[in-house]
């Protein structure tokens, strides 16, 4: 059963929505006798695997000595999450993965995992203004400081407070300095004031829920870097779709509507996706009609041209739609582009290889020939296979 990823900025309300979705699915499964014995539900998160926020901190200066490097710690965390998903994902298990899921390539990897076990996949993005998400982190930092102060009243500053204008020092007094030195240091002081006032991040005052026990992201640069590194989902790509969006302000009723959609589209009804043409599914026609080699060249050239045209629109990893025959046919073929841009030389290489395979030659048993529609279908299948190996 499906793998549902939750994604969003750090401290944007992902776990809140993930647990609401978990409760919704629990209830929904229990209320339907046809599903209650069939489905098992799992919620996997950084918290359930005891992954600390510090694994995401890229600054080696903040990495504890026993960790190889800041980046390695995140890789280990991802391996743990991946392993946990892989262990349970099956046609009977619904898995909600509540972690940042902020890297496009990582989401792709999980999408492939779902595809491997032939189970549906969906992505839920939790939308939240950056200033509010930052406010949540600030509130958690304040709470942690208060807790530390109450347990160790005499400890010194944790180093976690926001640099304030006061920390930049007082303005130099003109009488203390030589006029030129004064001017210079006054400029420096103004510059410093300016930098600190513009770089001091803006955050909203946020009320943490009374049950909130999560640790903050510290140092603050860890949180800021994650926001900076966040790779927005692109619903045009197959590994970011179907994409469901929830925002902080969505009411329980609104959220429920989205959960209903997830149930319908991802859990029970497998989305009716067009079955992709594959090389092996295409049969050869005995009677091609017209000059076969000419048709082979013409149709494959046409497909290359259309892919290049549409790629600009749908972007990397998008789906290009083509008519099964060049002349306004209703049937549609889909080419799923790889995660990086494909250029003309690469497409021409594939085209030539395909033409080579299909023109019939020495050593090939009596190849039949393909009519234009079958040819196009076959070339699209060939490209899909080639692109799939590429991402
Ligand atoms: P994340 O998992 O993204 O770090 P959480 O779900 O843990 O974020 O939420 C962080 C804090 O914000 C929690 O204290 C939670 O109660 C609060 N919060 C999250 N979403 C909402 C919301 N939609 N409305 C009100 N408070 C929320
Ligand atoms: Mg969380």
Automatic annotation (TrEMBL):
GO terms for molecular function: ATP binding. Pfam families: KTI12 (PF08433). Residues 181-192 have a biased composition (Polar residues). The keyword Manganese does not apply. The keyword Zinc does not apply. InterPro entries: KTI12/PSTK, P-loop_NTPase. Keywords: ATP-binding, Nucleotide-binding. It comes from the Eukaryota. Residues 146-172 have a biased composition (Low complexity). Residues 139-216 are annotated as: Disordered. Belongs to the KTI12 family. This is Chromatin associated protein KTI12. It comes from Sordaria brevicollis.
